[in-house]
């Protein structure tokens, strides 16, 4: 026995009074449930007053304020000023809103708090199960691999990293892109999400290496232009290694012709990655399933669960058909991370071998509990409901002589504008910009905007399980109201 | 007015019975509080039985099981089989455990659920405030920039990406590494965390470009070897652009001579990045502050809040001294993400312009509420407590003739092994491997392992606010017990 023993009064961050912390937790649950249940009664969005901004600029507190005060500050300065995305009339960008169960599951995840980088513990099996569920949903084989990630940006990055190591003609991890090999180039439509370009830049390809192929009138990739670009690059001595297909573009919800892209990539021995950030999950809607047939044969597919699975941020997913290729792109195991045969460092595979993060949170739990709560079929109905709401809104727009639909509505995104006789596009752009600001500032609704062929579009992306048709009635009414006020003014 | 109106019964994922969901939330709060308050009474870790594994391999449920059943499944198949890191006697890898407030704050974050990619809402101000707090803690100027990220891997990646665009002699985002420019190379000690190599590989430098510089007996970077490597690379026509310094290495907690690295990088016009995954926060301990003086002048610093700030996963942070350089490395704003002057798309700066993620969760809230709960000074005391616990354990090891300390203990990491007369290193490696398995499998404690100069080390990394000195007494007692059992057997 060793001789050294001392008695020291040690501190902890656990509460001194567990009952008080428990009571605070109950209060938080009650007030958040009230908050969510009554969302519809409040403005979608409102600006922060200066008092709140001032509080949120105070220097770091050195002394304890206590748990209750920390929560009071949250209620006073944060909770009244949401982004709005959990509200029934938020349709900005492409966002989900979360659910009460998602909220509670994130509490359990943070309390249980496993490090999902690896090791042998229940969390690992939960994430593997969730991944297996999504493999079956997306038509990937059970031996495929996957990873839950922070979102679509990371899912695309992981997919492209696997594409590089797999299709590279040299050891890309060791030699990198600096050794004078034939320039690797990849292809995606001009409507592809900016996260693909960001990934290409980060990976050292250079944005020049991303060939942005024009789209047709339906905002789908122009296949002839793609074929021509590949042929030209090959003739110039470049190495075309990957095509990114879109399952639901961010501007209009368009689907590229995935079957054609699959055929081209097979013929050219290229990687076929599908960015299905929200559109991939539309596979759960019987109307859309046929359009996603070829996605099920892609080499990798990226999609979000915090969009059209409605779980709270953050939860994205990437699936890779070839598990070995996936692991080869990321696995790196120094001594201090050595996997063991027994104990907590056991486990046949570590998630950190399949992506960028080593430490990883338990984002699988909210997905796991949400799917158990509602069953997968309900998610199919909710997605279908959003698609039908988009059709409904498109019909409202078409039925109004003062509104103009600016793009086809193949999925859940509606682009429209207010029009007025004799106004130029430039004038209409200004009018519709002002309409959008007023819709937001009056707390009525939050669409966002995009530009389509030089026309400013009020853009409504519906991945919201709280929206009802009456909400779109209101949107149209208020668009017309503001449009008439502005043009009369 | 438009004419189309229909009445459709629409579904939602919100509960039909809010009171039942509220009651379930109360139950979860109570049971998680009990679980955390009684951690010490349970084994640190235990293997999953086959029954749990079988449940966690079931196919996706198509029908609803309901919220209560989802929680029951969590309690039955997940909660009993933790990784162990929230337990007082977990010292594996480098992990934090979280706190009850961190758990509750993550619930609030998931309920409120803003997308922290950008826009004008309270969440944005909370993260900016948290970043400002850490700028002041790390001695960075208020005009510096920063970002909360998933953890140290991402923080290092972001720092290195800014280093590349800033120190690159061409447009690295546009041209990438494929255009035949002088090869960019960077330097870090052989003890540097694997996430740096992963970042270097992902970014297309190739792992060859990461010059791993040997260390001295204290596991600190060998400065003469570094100088020599830089000179040799310059002579060979390469472009040395960055040095990564360690503030707390993962194996032993060593600090590189940051002042010397700062001087070298200034002279050579190189980027100075500090990986302070856990060590950077030791700046809050007066004993350590002087060693981190030069970190305050680094170009970028990466650190985790889910390690030595004890918040639940995931929360890392990267600070970049030059805001404009940071933005230039990542900003990319297509039409559908255009920042606006007014409304929800307003806000002078968007976090998505400073990193890889576009959609971002509200990880700032748990940090904000935790610091308010306890005050910053308490975190300094907790970190100091862990450092003193490491010294205490080192003294216990040194006081025992059957134990050997395998490395200096400059911070919070203790590497030791059981020894026995006449045993070779190979034999001792096997004995200590078995000791470690038994410590874990008996649920007593979770250290992990590393190899130091061919010797298998039981490695104890203390970033645990629940550990007490008596826990290290137990660790030593049980190490000796298992060691003697094994060598006697």
Written description of the protein model:
2 copies of one chain form a homodimer. By secondary structure, chain A is of the alpha/beta class. Chain A folds into 3 domains: 18-44 and 46-81; 105-374, 3-Layer(aba) Sandwich (Aspartate Aminotransferase, domain 2), CATH 3.40.640; 377-488, Aspartate Aminotransferase, domain 1 (Alpha-Beta Complex), CATH 3.90.1150.170. Chain A contains 15 helices and 12 strands. In chain A, the strands form 2 sheets. A 7-stranded mixed sheet of chain A has the order 2-8-7-6-5-3-4, sandwiched between helices. A 5-stranded mixed sheet of chain A has the order 1-11-12-10-9. In chain A, strand 3, helix 8 and strand 4 (210-213) form a beta-alpha-beta unit. Chain A is globular, with a radius of gyration of 25 Å. The termini of chain A are far apart. Chains A and B meet through helix 1, helix 3, helix 4, helix 5 and helix 6 of A and helix 1, helix 3, helix 4, helix 5 and helix 6 of B.
